[in-house]
Amino acid sequence: MRDLPMPTFPISDLSAPAAPRRSLHPRSAATRPDAIGFDVVWARDEEDVRQAQQLRHLVFAQEMGARLTVPKGSPEGHDIDLFDPFCEHLLVRAHGTDGEPGPVIGTYRVLTPANAQRVGALYSDAEFDLTRLRPLRAKMVELGRSCVHPDWRSGGVILALWAALAEFMQRNALDTMIGCASVSMRDGGHFAASLWEQLRRTHLADIHWQVTPRLALPVEELQHDLAVEAPALIKGYLRCGAKVLGPPAWDPDFNTADLPMLLRIDDLPARYRKHFMA
After folding, report:
1. pTM
2. pLDDT at 240
3. What is the pLDDT of residues 4-39, one digit of tens each?
4. Tens-place pLDDT, residues 53-67
5. For the chain, which end, N or C, has fewer CB atoms within 10 Å of the first or last residue's CB respectively?
6. Distance between CA atoms of 241 and 235, rounded to whole angstroms?
């Protein structure tokens, strides 16, 4: 992918609410997920984004073993790429103790239509030919780099993030979300190939929205008839009405198979619409 211009942080074309500036600190043993709550906020400055990037590095590099390539001069222990300055960053912060702010324990980044035009591409453009989605782009956001700290992987954190995203979409008159749902290839890709074979029969988008991977996972060369269950996050997307747009791409740096997924607000089931968009 070509080098992208680096704007002065932040760029914000939509009405994402600002969050107070907070510092990251390690959780103490007494700061248990079942003992305290959390807040969902939007990053307001570079320090907030750096904390999200630290969490991403913890999850993607240290936990999952991804080979991260970061711009020259980036601080160590951060997952940073050239799209970050163009994105809005949604954060979940644990409540701290003794009045101190808590750490970032979950995050999504959101690339809005206006900022996608500024940067000249979506992150997903590098993995898929998205030509067929062109009619949707004016009101389409790209979600990415979603992760939750391993100590906080409960449904509550994910639901809180989704509720904030739904409110953001509604407030800014946006109607479509796309992104890549990553599946580990630690087993050589057999799980991912089998999952795709299942989902293409049950949750494949209409032909006019389908996309093709630039570096396809070689499904036919892998075992693709295993009885597998979708990971919890993908299962949650599907319950909300998301569709798979085509076969998975292989991301060798992250060692994942990436499924292109799309969710339109109009497809959100009534029970979730009531919960997220009341």
Report:
1. 0.85
2. 93
3. 333 333 334 444 443 333 333 233 322 344 445 889
4. 999 999 999 998 888
5. C
6. 10
**For the residues of the chain, what is the DSSP string, one character each?**
------PSSP---S-PPP-------PPPTT--TTT--EEEEE--SHHHHHHHHHHHIIIIIIIT-------TTPPTT----TTGGGSEEEEEEE--STTPPPPEEEEEEEE-HHHHHHHTS-GGGGTEE-GGGGGGGGGEEEEEEEEE-GGG-SHHHHHHHHHHHHHHHHHTT--EEEEEEEEE-TTSSHHHHHHHHHHHHHSBPPGGG--EESSB--GGGS---------HHHHHHHHTT-EE-SSPEEETTTTEEEEEEEEEGGGS-HHHHHHH--
82, two tokens: 């050239």
Structural domains in the chain, sorted by start:
107-276 (3.40.630)
Structure token pair of residue 107: 């995050």
Tokens 């979940």, residue located: 92
Cis peptide preceding 75, ω within 30 of 0? no
- Intervals of the chain under pLDDT 50: 1-35
pLDDT attached to residue 10: 39
